[in-house]
Predict the structure.
Amino acid sequence: MFFVAAVVGYLLGAIPVGYLVARAKGVNIFEVGSKNPGATNVRRVLGAGPGNLVFALDALKGAVAAFWPLQISFVPSLADHDGSLFGAIAGFIFALIGHSFSCFTKFRGGKGVATASGGLLVLLPLSAVICIAIWMAAFFLTRYVSVASILAALALPLSAWALGRPNVLIAMGVLVGAIVILRHRANISRLLNGTENKFVKKSPSSSAT
């Protein structure tokens, strides 16, 4: 059943929401903007409505992948007598991997922030709220989505540790944070070179078609 959680999580995460939403608008998201199918690029190219929809659905993928295994006892001897926690972690991690490397789009995908947010709201809700607050503060101060996402990723395991969460969840936080930061390595390079773009709202008149 642990394997089932991982497979289901991957397939949920691999659903290319950003690509599908953009395609419904007549846009191949892999060919415009940053060529990333995540909510940020969709929002830049198509506007707030489609971008917010992609974020919500990507977050839902992570939440569902983490939530359903909690309803089943996988290996009762694990995870403080709650083996379902390990199934939930596996589902969540593989949803994040599926989102980042989707088998439906030649293993291209988003950077995992929205999907991570959804799963964390299920498994580490207080840490998720802290990370969301950090993301928002960093974004409004810098207007860099990448900076906000990296700082939130760094805060995740630290907040889980500070809140006294179980070691397995702290380790999960380290892994999730590392995945998100690694997915932003190109952004980090551009930040260091001074070429990273700040987020600017897309005006309706200039939206791609």
In short: The chain has one domain: 2-206. The first helix runs from residue 2 to 14.
